[in-house]
Write a structure and sequence with these properties.
eight-stranded mixed β-sheet, Rossmann fold, seven-stranded mixed β-sheet, alpha/beta
């Protein structure tokens, strides 16, 4: 199979779909790999590194989108990239379609076969291709929130860990999954006063056993959520409904009861955000203020730590890429229903139920033929 890896063009996106080591694996399986010149510079990988791994280096994205049978990326294709996609081509990347009707319409129109990292499943309903980026984003959310809390950045001027004789900052983490767990780890490590909210009693038990007295757990109902958010200096939005838009758990009305300069970090922004007042921001301009509350809503947080993120991502995406390339996408999905769960769009139809429901498309499931 001819596989292409273009340079990412989203704002401050330094990750790359394939590392040189992943290219070497694909080439050793007999596949041809094309990499756009400069695609790996953000992770410290030069064109020479890719060439030594067996890739052909090409100038510009057209040689990839025009000729390659599978395109491997990190972030959702931007408008210019979507215009280059074609029927019969496989796109393998993060998509986050539910809150993005324009992207969905373009993918449907193109006829491309689009496989989304974030809906590929694992045993027990896990999301193994989303997990490493959730780990990165969860840990980064505390770094970003701590910076935004500084007075010079619009925050309350609170040091999360406090100092002797001064109380630490309060952190409320909404959602106790992978993002929330990792955010809580970082916040606890800084010495903050941490509360984790979740609706799953079993998850709350696991969190309680892990953190013991270092973090508090609380069942997430409306009253507990409102109280915890209003007491917090930093709120981390870490909720996820696989493939669907995130629920709006913090309303604009709730902002009035928060302390001025409180920081909200919306890690769910890729799925539309879990704060009513959220909208996507970039690393160029990461925050905005609504009613005195600072919002950090960067949609590609892990792109800022591109090397760590790219290698963590390739560790989990490469086995499926090899299966698709070796067998063809249809046979690979017949053999692995977990990969089949990643199919979001194919041949002009939406093939993921939550996306179809959110955006009003007819749902056409993959039937293996």
């Amino acid at each position: 199979m001819r596989i292409g890896c273009p340079k990412e063009i989203k704002n401050h996106e330094y990750r790359v779909g394939l590392t040189p080591e992943s290219v070497h694996e694909l080439v050793s399986h007999g596949h041809e790999v094309r990499v756009e010149t400069g695609a790996g510079l953000g992770i410290g990988a030069s064109d020479v590194d890719y060439r030594n791994a067996g890739a052909e280096i090409v100038d510009g994205p057209d040689a990839i989108f025009d000729d390659c049978e599978m395109v491997v990326k990190v972030k959702e294709p931007q408008a210019d990239e979507r215009a280059k996609l074609r029927e019969g081509q496989v796109l393998y990347t993060y998509l986050h379609l539910a809150p993005d009707p324009e992207q969905t319409a373009d993918l449907v129109k193109s006829g491309v076969t689009a496989i989304a990292y974030e809906t590929v499943t694992g045993p027990g309903g896990t999301l193994p291709l989303l997990k490493p980026m959730s780990q990165v984003a969860g840990r980064m959310s505390i770094q970003a929130g701590a910076t935004a809390l500084e007075k010079a950045h619009g925050g309350r001027g609170v040091l999360l860990g406090g100092v002797p004789g001064v109380m630490p900052g309060k952190v409320a983490v909404i959602g106790g999954g992978v993002v929330g767990w990792n955010a809580a780890q970082m916040a606890v490590g800084l010495g903050a006063d941490v509360t984790i909210l979740d609706r799953n009693p079993e998850q709350l038990e696991r969190l309680g056993m892990y953190f013991e007295s270092r973090a508090k757990t609380r069942f997430s109902n409306k009253a507990n959520l409102a109280e915890s958010v209003c007491e917090a200096d930093l709120v981390i939005g870490a909720v996820l409904i696989p493939g669907a838009a995130a629920p709006k758990l913090v309303s604009r009305a709730m902002l009035a009861d928060m302390k001025r300069g409180t920081v909200l970090v919306d890690v769910a922004i890729d799925q539309g955000g879990c704060f009513e007042t959220s909208h996507p921001t970039t690393h160029d301009d990461p925050t905005f203020v609504v009613d005195g509350i600072v919002h950090y809503c960067v949609a590609n947080m892990p792109g800022a730590v591109a090397r760590t993120s790219t290698y963590a991502l390739n560790n989990v995406t490469l086995p499926h890429a090899l299966a698709i390339a070796d067998k063809g996408w249809r046979q690979a999905m017949r053999d692995n229903p977990h990969l089949a769960a990643g199919l979001n769009v194919h041949a002009g139809a939406v093939t993921y139920e939550a996306v179809a429901r959110e955006l009003g498309y007819e749902y056409r499931p993959f039937e293996g033929n």
